Amino acid sequence: MFDKVMESVKYIESKVSLKPEIAVILGSGLGNLVDVVENKQYIDYKDIPNFPQSTVAGHEGRLVFGDIKGKTVLIMQGRFHYYEGYTMKEVTYPVYVMQKLGIKKLVVTNACGGINTSFKPGTLMLIKDFINLMGDNPLMGANDERFGVRFPDMSEPYKLNFIDKAKGIAEELNIEHAVGVYAGFSGPYYETASEITMIGRMGADAVGMSTVPETIAANYLGIDVLGIACITNMATGIQKVKHSHERVVETANRIATDLCRWVQEIINAL
Ligand code: HPA
């Protein structure tokens, strides 16, 4: 894997000279952050040696390099989900590449279901911790010390001082927000009502099908993470209507404007 990652890195560095320290992974329907990036340079995933490819509708597959508020960033437009059939190593492959590109900070966003009944569709939740219910994780298998240690600490998966900064900015911008625990479920089906009861009792405020693998990998790789979960719907059994991907994307698009304002200022402040 190390040699593969280095080959991807070499290709990317041969195409762009920008040296970002901050990366952003965008969730479903949240891609409009890319519109505010200046001096953009794109690299399609399909052109990067050893890089996995996106399959889900509404997910583009490219890296966007450029500047937001004068800071150089790397945006992943389109991520890899475990439910697509990728291995956990493939899902998190881009994060390994980020480490070798010199990324130190990662902002991860997603669309997810709300379990905490004080939430409503449209709530933006800063993630303070995760529960991994995916039944797998990216660190399984032989460890390569060139990436990280065998037994990484996971006591602060989302950097507390990033959360504090993000909260302060949300207050300044008048963006309604919450803080909570995100449970990662493999999907691709939306959970059953009983699963949601269980996940809620475990202490999760929201549930989704992404973010946890990338967070685990980033912590292992020494990259500090801020996670923002966009509640696009209430979870099964709490919401009385049936789920639809179209509605999820529609709500994500509605929240995207606020999220975009918020993330720009966060990038500026991190
Ligand atoms: N559950 C899991 N993933 C999701 C949901 C949900 O309710 N909404 C958007 N992504």
UniProtKB/TrEMBL annotation:
Q: Which domain of life is it from?
A: Bacteria
Q: Which InterPro entries match?
A: Nucleoside_phosphorylase_d, Nucleoside_phosphorylase_sf, Pur_Nuc_Pase_Ino/Guo-sp, Purine_phosphorylase, Purine_phosphorylase-2_CS
Cite the EC number: 2.4.2.1
A Pfam family that this protein carries is PNP_UDP_1
Alphabetized, the UniProt keywords read:
Glycosyltransferase, Transferase
* UniProt cross-references to SUPFAM superfamilies, sorted A to Z: Purine and uridine phosphorylases
| Cited PANTHER family | METHYLTHIOADENOSINE/PURINE NUCLEOSIDE PHOSPHORYLASE (PTHR11904), PURINE NUCLEOSIDE PHOSPHORYLASE-RELATED (PTHR11904:SF9)
Q: How does it assemble?
A: Homotrimer.
Family in the record? Belongs to the PNP/MTAP phosphorylase family.
Q: What does this protein do?
A: The purine nucleoside phosphorylases catalyze the phosphorolytic breakdown of the N-glycosidic bond in the beta-(deoxy)ribonucleoside molecules, with the formation of the corresponding free purine bases and pentose-1-phosphate. Cleaves guanosine, inosine, 2'-deoxyguanosine and 2'-deoxyinosine.
Which protein is depicted?
Purine nucleoside phosphorylase
Phylogenetic classification of the source organism? Bacteria, Bacillati, Bacillota, Clostridia, Eubacteriales
